[in-house]
Amino acid sequence: MSGTDLSHRDHVGGLFRAHYAWLCARLRRYLGASPSVEDIAAESFLQLLESPGLTPIREPRALLTTIAHRLIFQLWRRRDLERQHLEQVQHVDQQQEALSPEGQVQLIQALQGIERTLERLPGKVRATFLMSRIDGLTYPQIAARLGISQRSVSDYMTRSQAQCNRHSANQPLNALTRRSA
Length: 181
Hints:
Elements: H1 3-31, H2 36-50, H3 60-98, H4 101-119, H5 123-133, H6 139-146, H7 150-170, H8 173-180
Helix pairs in contact: 1-2, 1-3, 2-3, 4-7, 4-8, 5-6, 5-7, 6-7
């Protein structure tokens, strides 16, 4: 460790001793008695410690507050994403529970029929359809991946959609999935 690293570490250590309790009290205003308060305060000082070439801090409390606010927003975003994920998992679980054994068999048969329908399509037409519907790619992205024109992508999608429509006229998958939901 160089002398600069040691002096920087000592400086941040002094800031920690002088401002840690203050920062925790300030964070409690936003987070209440959350166990995250100490974690965010410690992470704020860790980010200061890891900052390369930190110049002398004129207003350490302002800097610590800014860093802590960013960490709070990251925490809230992460919690929102976790909540959304859990809601999606619960929704899928509820749908699976709502489907009777007969409904599951019918759904499997319908999916197998769709698979047979897609297998009848030529390779690039099938690939275009799957990239659009499953992967969510745009027509320009599909064209670039397959080395074809966007016009071909559009034609292939029309062709695959017509094949799916013919299949759906024979086996109404949409009605089946609506009944089971």
